[in-house]
Design brief:
about 260 residues, alpha/beta, Arc Repressor Mutant, subunit A, Rossmann fold, seven-stranded parallel beta sheet, three-stranded antiparallel beta sheet, 10 helices, DeoR-like_C, DeoR_HTH, transcription
Length: about 260
């Protein structure tokens, strides 16, 4: 039996949960001008697929402090991620060596790099490798290691050893969450180690993450903003603490919109 496809409205509800947190059935029914029974069916479908967790009267993310599956993440804020990916790819020149790390936004960056000439890509992200495997002008190096089935990536010390054999022009990484105090955060220590290895073995360090990452809670510190060169995002959060932290770090922030070429 094939993978179930969620509807556009269900994707929007997931994006609302990701961006704004807990959503309530009555409010969603008013938002979409639908009955509460219809919204409950949407929520039940999302929960049955493991994308969300229901409670009395509402829905939120599956488990506090844990990440949802890569396929679910790829559906969240899809338009913003594509805009970010397009702009990142536009700023990566031909003949570059590029680390592409873990995460759904990085997966979109890989798709946007398919027509680049003479790229060398090193990745532990299975979706990145699949996106680029038939791009004739891109040489792909896929690391060895432990395959994580839900995330479609490879982790472990073998990944770090492989990465350390290269010095990349660019490292493009995502984040599980963003914190004004701690910078990049993630849900997994193994992911954090690999992201650090990519940053440390590259000339230009690029973070690609949409605004919803500021609303998430993750427990593993990855790197402060000062370790990054550029941050590509769809928009900045309204909180002064976040914008102040970015300004103080000296990080170059690029906001991506549809009118950018």
């Amino acid at each position: 039996m094939g993978q179930r496809i969620i509807s556009s409205r269900q994707r929007e509800i997931l994006a609302l949960i990701e961006t704004d947190g807990v959503q309530y059935i009555e409010e969603l029914a008013r938002r979409y001008d639908l009955t509460t029974q219809t919204i409950r069916r949407d929520i039940n479908a999302l929960c049955d697929l493991g994308h969300a967790r229901r409670f009395h009267g509402g829905v939120d993310l599956p488990v506090e402090g844990s990440n949802i599956s890569l396929n679910a993440r790829a559906q969240l804020n899809r338009r913003a991620k594509r805009l970010i990916a397009k702009r990142v790819a536009a700023d990566i020149g031909a003949e570059a060596t590029v680390f592409l790390g873990i995460g759904s936004t990085v997966r979109f960056v890989a798709e946007a790099l398919r027509d680049h000439q003479g790229l060398t890509v090193i990745t532990n992200n299975i979706h990145v490798a699949l996106s680029l495997c038939d791009a004739p002008s891109v040489e792909v190096h896929l690391t060895g290691g432990l395959l994580r089935h839900d995330d479609r990536d490879v982790v472990g010390t073998d990944v770090i050893r492989f990465v350390e054999k290269f010095y990349a022009t660019y490292a493009v990484v995502g984040a599980g969450a963003l914190s004004p105090l701690n910078g990049l955060m993630d849900f997994s220590y193994s992911e954090a180690q690999i992201t650090n290895a990519l940053l440390e073995n590259s000339q230009t360090q690029i973070l690609a993450a949409d605004v919803s990452k500021w609303t998430r809670n993750a427990s593993v510190r990855v790197a402060p903003f000062s370790k990054l060169t550029r941050f590509y995002t769809d928009r900045l959060p309204g909180e002064a603490a976040a914008t102040n932290a970015l300004a103080e770090s000296g990080l170059d922030v690029v906001t991506c919109s549809e009118d950018m070429t």
